[in-house]
Specification:
The chain is an alpha/beta fold. It has helices at about 15-25, 40-50, 60-65, 80-90, 105-115, 130-140, 160-165, 185-195, 275-280, 305-315, 330-345, 355-365; strands at about 5-10, 30-35, 55, 70, 90-95, 120-125, 150-155, 200-210, 220-225, 230-240, 245-250, 255-260, 265-270, 290-295, 350. It contains twelve helices and 15 strands. It is globular and about 75 Å long.
């Protein structure tokens, strides 16, 4: 195999974006080989634009022999089954975020993949490849921050007006999208959270549903995350604030890092551990000496292409995957727990109760009063 042949399912905004850079050769080890969509107009437009075969049935594309990888860019509920069918057909999978809507279907997807270890499986968690986030991961893993104490992420820059929610019938619906800001925009942030800190042991969340828009799903969330080791966090996201704020602060006993707008990184480093200072200090108002340190943040931000290129290299050259597909379960555990907490008013222990979550998801879907997708 000289180049990896990609097929794309779903030719909306994301699928078309992937098709554009693949067709332009921006992944040097890949080609766009086929596209699939059940919308005849979208399919005809894509086949003409990219000069590739088109399919209205994804299983026919799998059986065609034209593709080595499927890039799943459909509405969220469809991700697990389309991925499972690809595993069984011997086709590698790049699944757009989120991995699914509820953990039960994603667990089944992961179990299916385990039966086909030679099939590569990754998820589109591209923000792990942003230079600033990679540097934060390095600071945590290397121990530069010491023992972690607390994190706070305020990200209200995901502003989406009503026109966005009205742009596709599935957006802003329980039965089409499966949620709002947590399941659409913020899987990236939640994935980074678990990448940095792991999956929390308990979650308490408060959220508003259709507070700013004519939708039934959540558009404003404030959550508290708790870990058995004493680490705690707050996570605040919204699609209804403009201008918004994007600020991540992580505190350890050796200092803190502050990241704003995904780019501007500051490191305030204690000369000695705060815990050691507390042990030896005799002055009632003294703080440990702290230095503001310049941290080099280098590297290009290739966005979605970073994950696609990584998968192509994994297939052709057996390089390790940067994101194992099974990790999509982690962020979904957290977002499902947040939803369950908001619905019940309780603090939720993880792993989340799959059956209870699914039961309440169905109840909220049936009660939807503003928008529905699946008739």
């Amino acid at each position: 195999m000289e180049k990896v042949r990609y097929g794309i399912i779903g030719l909306g905004a994301m699928g078309s974006g992937h098709a554009d850079y693949l067709s332009k050769g921006e992944d040097p080890n890949a080609v766009l080989a086929a596209v699939c969509d059940n919308n005849p107009a979208a399919l005809e437009k894509a086949t003409k634009k990219y000069s590739v075969p088109g399919f209205s049935d994804y299983k026919e594309m799998y059986a065609s022999g034209l593709i080595d990888v499927v890039l799943v860019a459909t509405p969220h509920y469809d991700h697990p089954q389309m991925s499972i069918d690809a595993f069984e057909a011997g086709i590698h999978v790049l699944c757009e975020k989120p991995a699914g809507v509820y953990t039960k279907q994603v667990r089944e997807m992961n179990e299916a993949h385990a039966k086909y270890p030679d099939v590569k499986f990754t998820c589109m968690f591209l923000m792990r490849k942003y230079p600033a986030f990679a540097k934060i991961k390095d600071l945590i893993d290397s121990g530069e921050l010491g023992t972690l104490k607390r994190a706070c992420w305020i990200n209200t820059t995901w502003y989406r007006p009503q026109a966005y929610h009205d742009s596709s019938a599935w957006r802003g619906t329980w039965d089409g999208e499966g949620g709002g800001v947590l399941i659409n925009q913020c899987p990236h942030n939640i994935d980074l959270w678990q990448w940095f800190f792991g999956v929390p042991d308990r979650v308490q969340a408060h959220m508003s549903f259709g507070k700013y828009y004519n939708i039934d799903v959540e558009d404003d969330v404030t959550a508290y995350l708790e870990y058995d080791n004493g680490f705690t966090g707050t996570f605040i996201v919204s699609t209804g604030e403009a201008p918004g704020t994007n600020r991540l602060e992580i505190v350890g006993d050796m200092g803190k890092v502050v990241l704003t707008d995904n780019e501007h990184l500051e490191f305030y480093r204690n000369r000695i551990s705060e815990r050691e200072h507390n042990r030896i200090n005799k002055e009632k108002m003294a703080q440990p000496e702290c230095w503001k340190v310049e941290v080099p943040v280098t590297g290009a931000n290739l966005a979605h292409k970073a994950i696609t290129r990584n998968l192509s290299e994994a297939i052709l050259f057996d390089k390790p995957l940067f994101v194992q597909g099974e990790e999509g379960m982690n962020s979904l555990q957290i977002s499902n727990a947040m939803h369950l907490s908001a619905w019940t008013g309780e603090m939720i222990s993880l792993p989340v109760d799959e059956d209870k979550f699914y039961e309440l998801l169905q109840e909220y879907t049936k009660k939807a009063s503003r928008k529905t997708f699946r008739k």
